[in-house]
TrEMBL record:
One Pfam family it belongs to: DUF34_NIF3
Keyword Acetylation assigned: no
InterPro entries listed in its UniProt record: DUF34/NIF3 (IPR002678), DUF34/NIF3_bac (IPR017221), DUF34/NIF3_sf (IPR036069), N-reg_PII/ATP_PRibTrfase_C (IPR015867)
Organism: Pedobacter alpinus
Entry keyword Kinase: no
Family membership noted in the UniProt record: Belongs to the GTP cyclohydrolase I type 2/NIF3 family.
Gene3D superfamilies given in the database record: 3.30.70.120, NIF3 (NGG1p interacting factor 3)-like
Superkingdom of origin: Bacteria
Protein name in UniProt: GTP cyclohydrolase 1 type 2 homolog
Classification of source organism: Bacteria, Pseudomonadati, Bacteroidota, Sphingobacteriia, Sphingobacteriales
Keyword tags: Metal-binding
Length: 365
């Protein structure tokens, strides 16, 4: 298959506009039309990973972290980023990253952490806004269902666990066609009144072009009257971190010991053990200290993430336990997540997880 077959699918699950402003998710090296036969999955893209791809005949590397975060002005091989890009190009290996956009979806990186530690009733900890729009348009009553079906199929009207969501109200539309018009109903130069339906739907911003195209194609009128609105509603399906619950409360020390085992962690840095059972748990793969206030507001008993600085631990203020399990450790099962979603969609595509750990941090025990 072609690179774009794979990347289009991944971006249908985790759209690129879900990534943070500092990120660089997407196709970093390679042409979308190039044929690929085998993929290698890793958390990071290092020289070792490129060497492994060469040795195992993989022609694309799918990593969580992008190898390039900033623009490169020279390719002299003076650092590992330049060397990775040069080696990938020389060996015709495509590089693709799916980072904070995969972090942000409800079935993404954080959902995998929740699954590993046995959480249920999980939801996004800090939902994002600015990701939804509203479409309002007018259509003759007889064609309303046909047009609604077209925009629903294009991605409009999905709210949480519900699809085909819309609101309709019947009213009277008026218009007068001029000489150049080709009216669907009515006569030229005569005021026409038509029973119409006003339909409103919510849609994700990245689907706008597809939805408007479907509307214009399915609508019977020569000129379609419609309005687009930016809305400030938070998208509860997209955002940072997650919060969920254990089936039963457990004392904090026992919870941390189980966490260490389930997440395959060598060391957990944590705040003071509090004298209460752990029931409600917040998580964030990677660097999540910015979500501490959200975890506290969500009444979490513990917040599992990584990369907390020394003074940031004080901000817990005995309201919850911070459990810093390490950046690599918190995201390592992202590789399994990617393998599962790609294999499910493309069962005959050859794909493997790296045999090398890219964790740059070592522990002396």
């Amino acid at each position: 298959m072609q690179i774009k077959d794979l990347t289009n699918y991944l971006e249908s699950l985790a759209p690129l506009n879900y990534q943070e402003s500092y990120d660089n998710a997407g196709l970093i090296v390679g042409h979308p039309d190039r044929e690929i036969k085998k993929a290698l999955i890793s958390l990071d893209c290092t020289e070792t990973i490129v060497d492994e791809a060469i040795a195992t005949d993989c022609d694309i590397i799918i990593s969580h972290h992008p190898i390039v975060f900033k623009g490169l002005k020279k390719f002299n091989g003076k650092n590992y980023v330049e060397r990775v890009v040069i080696k990938a190009i020389e060996n015709k290996i495509a590089l693709y990253a799916i980072h904070t956009n995969l972090d942000s979806i409800i079935e993404g990186v954080n959902a995998k952490i929740c699954e590993k530690i046995g959480l249920t009733n999980c939801k996004i900890l800090a939902p994002k806004d600015g990701l939804l729009k509203k479409l309002s348009f007018f259509v003759p009553l007889a064609q309303a269902n046909e047009v609604k079906d077209a925009i629903f199929n294009a991605g409009a009207g999905a709210i949480g666990n519900y699809s085909n969501c819309s609101f309709s109200v019947i009213g009277q539309g008026t218009f007068k066609a001029n000489d150049k018009a080709k009216p669907f109903v009515g006569e030229k130069h005569k005021l026409h009144t038509e029973e119409e339906v006003k339909i409103e739907v919510i849609f994700p911003v990245q689907a706008e072009n597809k939805i408007i195209s479907a509307l214009l194609k399915a609508h019977p009128y020569e000129t379609v009257a419609y309005d687009l609105y930016a809305i400030t509603n938070k998208n509860e399906e997209v955002g940072s971190g997650m919060v969920g619950e254990l089936a039963e409360g457990i004392d904090a020390l026992s919870f941390l010991k189980e966490l260490k085992d389930k997440m395959n962690v060598a060391v957990i840095r944590h705040t003071e053990i509090l004298p209460k059972k752990i029931k409600r748990v917040a998580v964030c793969g990677g660097s999540g200290s910015f979500l501490l206030k959200n975890a506290i507001q969500a009444n979490a008993d513990v917040f599992i993430t990584s990369d907390f600085k020394y003074h940031e631990f004080f901000n817990a203020e005995d309201k919850l336990i911070i459990a810093d399990i390490g950046h690599f450790e918190s995201e390592q099962f992202t590789q399994d997540l990617l393998l599962d979603v790609i294999t499910k969609k493309f069962p005959n595509f050859a794909i493997r997880i790296t045999e090398n750990s890219t964790n740059p941090i070592k522990y002396l025990s």
